[in-house]
Here is the input.
Amino acid sequence: MILSGRVHKFGADIDTDAIIPARYLNTFDPGELAQHCMEDADPRFPEKVQAGDIIAADKNFGCGSSREHAPIAIKGAGVSCVIAKSFARIFYRNCINVGLPILECSEAVDAMQDGDPLQVDLDTGKIINLRSKEEYQAMPFPPFMQQIMDKGGLINYVKERKERDEVEV
Here is the structure.
């Protein structure tokens, strides 16, 4: 799957409270969460972000609490993927669970500027900065994890497998 979008660049240690402040955790509605996504890190983010855009961040993105609200808010805001130097472990897993593509690539993050147009091939892990024409290589997800992402997350993946298995029996 090929994604394209503009970069919204953030620093290191962006925690889940900066991604979606605790005062908005009374809902799981992606649309409502999107209205407040990243507002504590960049108050203008909810109005600037457009469908397909990409978040780029330094190390330890998604640290803090284990709330699934954070990747739901990012996905609800229309962000197509997150590229960071590293992710907090539970945030990484929550992204897979909700179907938000993430890639680790320090070199790409270091070279990106806010607003850069990117093209990302999730199947191969190739990241192209369309401004600078530079290419970077991230580790793509293994095929079974890519299937989970393609279905929009773990619940959709399991539902489809269950329905298919029931038909085959």
